[in-house]
Amino acid sequence: MTVEELNQERMDPDFWDDPDRAQDIEKRIAREKEWIEAWEDVKEQAEDIETLQLLAEEEDADMGDEIAAEARALEKKLDRLELESLLDDPDDERDAIININPGAGGTEGQDWADMLLRMYMRWAEENEFETELLHHQPGEEAGIKSATLNVQGEYAYGRLKSETGVHRLVRISPFDADSRRHTSFASVFVYPEVDDSISVDLDEGEIELQTFRSGGKGGQHVNRVETGVRLIWTGTLSDGEETTVRAACTQERSQHQNRRRARKMLQSRIYQAEREIQQREKEKIESQKKSIEWGSQIRSYVLHPYTMVNDHRTETKITNAEAVLDGEKLDPLIKAYLLTGKKDRDTSPV
To answer: Of 61, 96, 172, 308, whose CB count within 10 A is highest?
Structure first.
């Protein structure tokens, strides 16, 4: 719907009889206005660059560096707007929760999972998203056994949903005394964080509470007291399938706070499962977590004998693997995935 159509609904005398729908329309109007303002800003910046070019020609002035800097800034804004134009799913604008787990291989896989966690945190920082580490279980020697990261900001889930799947790393192992090449796997699962506008009834199933010592950072208190919380929900989804969903939180200093955060994570995961059922996807939420082994990866990161990141779903290849792992070159991979998804939607029968 256009802004005019949304405003027309707003004029209805019964508009606020349904507060939830009214608030949703208000949010959509605000987003549409922001979108229009963003494009007007881009248009104005393009005109400013044209003016600078004309001034440089007329006055025979050396303004190349200034014009180039303005052009780079404009290109960055255009890339972001183009990316956001692909995010048309209702959940795309939500915050994201990323769960990372290593595959088999002990320290190798755990170190690779930690590298992925760093990549997403660096990417979030680069894109001015807020992050919060909700759960972090360190490995014995290096890396992590599991981690859950909350990424907050506009379209966080829409941009990160491309990352769900198995990620494969090929490198000379820093843990191998003979400097042999190793292949490691880690799984990434991304889901939208629910808020107060979404109702998920956890009373429809049974919840088991487990507590444990958080470990790691947080001072002596979290290491001595069982502040960490794991919630395990067993219930039946709307398609009749009985399932078990888990969520753990170790970030907060009190068990009560961790329990509250874990409950919200549990609701988000159940919501995602129901959403996938409604969309009639072939794979349900648990079967999406493919076996973390050969042949199932969505993306390969090769650091030896050459450097290359290859997304096997879109065949997008980036030779600067280090830049991808630093979070700087992740957007082209995300954009290619979103473009592929848009083409599939455009060509699917109505």
So the answer is: 96
Q: Which residue has the tokens 């991304």?
A: 190
Q: Are 153 and 173 in contact (CB under 8 A)?
A: no
State how many domains the chain has: 2
As a whole number of angstroms, the distance between CA 319 and CA 314 comes to 15
338-345 long-range contacts, Cβ below 8 Å, gap at least 24? Answer: 338/83, 338/86, 338/87, 338/158, 338/162, 339/86, 339/314, 340/313, 340/314, 341/86, 342/86
Same-domain status, 156 and 183: yes
Please tell me the pTM assigned to this model: 0.69
Ranges assigned E (strand) in 105-240: 130-138, 144-152, 165-172, 181-192, 206-212, 228-236
**228 assigned to some structural domain:** yes
Are residues 184 and 163 both part of a single domain? yes
pLDDT in tens, 72-96: 888 888 877 877 788 888 789 889 9
> Any long-range contacts for 90-93 (C-beta under 8 Å, 24+ apart)?
91/157, 91/158, 91/192, 91/275, 92/155, 92/157, 92/158, 92/161, 93/31, 93/154, 93/155, 93/157, 93/158
SS3 312: coil
- Tokens for 229, please give them: 């919380």
Residues 77 and 106 in one domain: no
